[in-house]
Design goal:
Layout (H helix, E strand, L loop, with lengths): L2 H14 L6 E2 H7 L6 H9 L12 E2 L14 H10 L12 H4 L6 H9 L1
Parallel strand pairs: 1-2
Helix pairs in contact: 1-3, 2-3
C-alpha cells in the first residue's frame, strides 16, 4: 500500500516529539515533507502499529484541543497521558500551546534534534 511509506514518515516525526511537548497534525505533516497532508497524519495515528513506542497522544489540533476519537481510549486518556508528561492545559481543556508546543517547524531542525 502506498500510504505505508507516508505513514512511516509521519511515525518518524511523531517519535521525535519530546516528552512534555505536543505538535499539531499540520506540523507533523510539514516536518514529514508533506505540508498539505495533515488529515493523513490523523489516519496514520489511528492505525498506530506501535502504541507506546509511537507517542500519538502528543499530536493535537492546531488550537490545542484533543482528538475526540483518540484511538486508544478517547480524549480523557489522551489528556491523562499528556498530563503525566507535564503538559499544561488551559481552563477550556486545550493544551497550553505557549508552554507546550514543540518548537520544531522545519526538517533541518528535526534532523538537528535527532542528532542530540
Amino acid at each position: 500500500m502506498a500510504s505505508e511509506g507516508l505513514f512511516r514518515e509521519f511515525y518518524r516525526v511523531v517519535k521525535a516529539i519530546p516528552r512534555g511537548k505536543v505538535a499539531n497534525y499540520g506540523q507533523v505533516a510539514l516536518l514529514a515533507g508533506h505540508p498539505r497532508a495533515a488529515r493523513f497524519v490523523g489516519y496514520a495515528l489511528h492505525s498506530n502499529p506501535e502504541p507506546g513506542v509511537i507517542p500519538c497522544h502528543r499530536v493535537v489540533f492546531k488550537d490545542g484541543s484533543l482528538a475526540s476519537g483518540f484511538a486508544f481510549g478517547g480524549p480523557d486518556v489522551q489528556r491523562r497521558l499528556l498530563e503525566d508528561e507535564g503538559v499544561a492545559f488551559l481552563p477550556d481543556g486545550c493544551v497550553n500551546l505557549q508552554e507546550c508546543q514543540w518548537e520544531c517547524f522545519n526538517q533541518a531542525e528535526l534532523e538537528i534534534e535527532r542528532q542530540d
